[in-house]
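Quick entry, no commentary yet.
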Amino acid sequence: MRVTFLGTGTSHGVPVIGCDCPVCRSPLPENKRLRSSIWLNFAGRNVVIDTGPEFRLQALRYGLRRLDAVLFSHAHADHIFGFDDIRRFCQMQGEAISVYASPETLKTLRCAFGYIFDLDRNDWTIPRAVPHVLDGPFSLFGQDIKPLTVYHGKTAVTGFRIGGFAYVTDCNMIPDQAMAALQNLEVLVLGALRYKPHHTHFSIGEAIRVIETLQPKYAYLTHLCHEVDHAELIASLPAGIQPAYDGLVVDL
C-alpha cells in the first residue's frame, strides 16, 4: 500500500491568512500545509480519507486521476468541503463514487451536499455518491478496514486501521477499545496540533506519549498548525517519529 499525504495542516491551513509569523513566511516547502487528507493506493485502487476545501488542488498537484472510494473521518468543514470535487472523477469514470462514513457524518453530508446522493439523475453534471454506513469492520477492494471511534472534544471522529497502517486525526482522546486496536502497527499517523495543550486536539507532547504507548515501528504527526516549524520539530522528535508534510509518500 502506498500512502500520499495530500495535506497536513489545520482548519486554517498554513500559511494562515493575514499572519506574518516565521512559519507563515517560511520558504520551506514543508511549512506550507493544505487541509489534512491522505490518498491510499492498494490493489490498483485509489481511496481518499477526507475531502478538504483544497481537494481539487491536491488531486492536481499529486496526480490523482482516478478515485474509487472516499472515507470520512468526521464532518467538520476542513474535512468535507471539497466533496463536490468528486464530480470530475464521476464524469471521467462514468460511475458514482462509494462513500463510507459514520451515521452522524453521513447525516451532515446529506444536509450540506444532498444533491450528491441523488442517484436518479441520468447525467454527470453533478457528482454522485453511494453512501455506506460505517458500523464495524468491512472489506474494500480486498483490503480489511477497521473503523475506530476516537474523540475530538465531544465530537466522535472515525480513525481507520488498514492492515499495518492507521490514520487517526483530529482527536484528544483515544478510548481503550481503539487503543487496543492500534497495537502492532507498522505506521501510525496521528494528529498533533501544536506544542501548547488544546481542548480538542492532542498537543505534540501528548501525541508523543500515545505513540510511545502504542510503539508502532514508525509514526508521523499531522494536522500541524502555523506555530510548528517543520525543521525545528523534526530535530526535536524521538527516533521513529517524524512530522508529515504535504506530498510525503510512505510505502508499506
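second:
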Amino acid sequence: MTSWKIFQGTPEQPHDGIKRLPKPSSWRDFSNSKEQRGATYKSRGEEIDLVNAALYLRRPLLVTGKPGTGKTSLAYAVAKELQLGEVLRWNITTRPTLQEGLYRYDAIGRLQDAQGYQQY
C-alpha cells in the first residue's frame, strides 16, 4: 500500500512526491510575489521624509507599529524604488539586543578563522 505522506522526514532520500498534489489555487501563486511586493504601496509624506532622512544620514530606520499597518510593505517599496535588491528580514522579539542587530566583532573567532581552526 502506498503511503499518503508526501514529506517522509528522510532528507537523505529526496523524491518528487510533491508532484502528486493538485496545483494550488491561483491566489496561492507566489512565483512573482517578490517582484510585486511594494509595487502598490502608497507612501505618506511623513514616511517619505523619514526614509529620506535615514538615507541621507546613512542610518537605519526603525519602523514600529501594530500588525498590518504597512511596515514590511514600506521596506519593500523602498527597496523596489531604489533597486536595492532583496529585503533582509530580522523579526524582532524580546530577546535580541541592539548589538545583535548591528555588528558583532569577535576577535578570537576571526583569529581562529584566519588560522583555519575548526572547533569540534
